[in-house]
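Renewal narrative, Specific Aim 1. Our central claim is that a sequence can be written position by position from structural information alone. The example that follows is taken directly from our test logs and has not been curated for this report. It begins with the structure tokens describing the chain, in the order in which they were read.
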């Protein structure tokens, strides 16, 4: 930890700040990221630099996107960091990640994401998935469980469908609350996301609309939850049982329904 950046900074609730302090967990994440000199590395929300400094010790350059002006100022005032770090004082949910691309290289994105904005931020990042090699994120454990969930489980939902449409998912490590300061009230986990080289040919907005409708009232059968989009007969025509609940459909089922509606 770089004391010059750390000194006197209090975690801010409005930014969802919980700073990672567990060296073992930090090591696991950096090993998973596997930073190389020729990578275009992007860290979202570097905070006090728990991941920033170990990654910088292995590479020549790192881009960071940070909203908190005080933290940005601390990074920019450190002359040693200044040569290796490009700091973007910006809201990651509105940030154009494509501006960081060089030649034919893809981005490697990582961060300890603020839990209060993690889902919309992930959806924003999925828009850049063709330009990203991989992503490693610390998230609330419940969110990681939903992203990795298999059809038929209670965790399977809209986030599972959309994440798995764009990416292959893998749990890296579970992280207990005491690994942070201040300790959050929830368990955390680190997920690895690798954007798929090929995805189904489907209107993504329609896929999102279908997943939203299907899971808005999870206890309903798809005959009822999707009735504004297609009929029970049309579901049967697609080879789907209208009496199923949404959690029992696979990603390919959601794609099939979305393609059918788009073609109607």
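The sequence written for that structure reads:
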């Amino acid at each position: 930890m770089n004391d010059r950046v750390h000194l006197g900074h209090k975690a801010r609730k409005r930014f969802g700040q919980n700073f990672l302090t567990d060296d073992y967990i930090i090591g696991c994440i950096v090993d998973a990221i596997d930073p190389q000199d020729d990578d275009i590395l992007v860290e979202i929300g570097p905070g006090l630099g728990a991941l920033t400094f170990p990654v910088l010790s292995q590479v020549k350059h790192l881009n960071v996107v940070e909203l908190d002006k005080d933290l940005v100022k601390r990074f920019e005032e450190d002359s040693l960091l200044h040569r290796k770090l490009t700091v973007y004082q910006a809201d990651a949910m509105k940030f154009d990640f494509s501006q960081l691309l060089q030649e034919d290289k893809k981005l490697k994105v990582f961060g300890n994401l603020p839990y209060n904005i993690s889902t919309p931020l992930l959806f924003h990042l999925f828009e850049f998935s063709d330009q990203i090699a991989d992503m490693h994120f610390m998230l609330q454990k419940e969110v990681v469980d939903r992203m990795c969930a298999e059809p038929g489980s209670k965790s399977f939902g809209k986030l599972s469908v959309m994440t798995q449409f764009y990416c292959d998912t893998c749990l890296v490590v579970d992280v207990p609350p005491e690994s942070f300061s201040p300790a959050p009230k929830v368990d955390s986990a680190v997920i690895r996301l690798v954007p798929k080289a090929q995805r189904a040919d489907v209107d993504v907005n329609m896929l999102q609309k279908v997943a939203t409708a299907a899971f808005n009232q999870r206890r309903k059968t798809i005959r009822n939850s999707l009735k504004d989009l297609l009929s029970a007969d049309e579901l049967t025509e697609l080879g789907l049982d209208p009496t199923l609940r949404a959690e029992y459909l696979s990603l390919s089922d959601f794609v099939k329904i979305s393609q059918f509606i788009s073609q109607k």
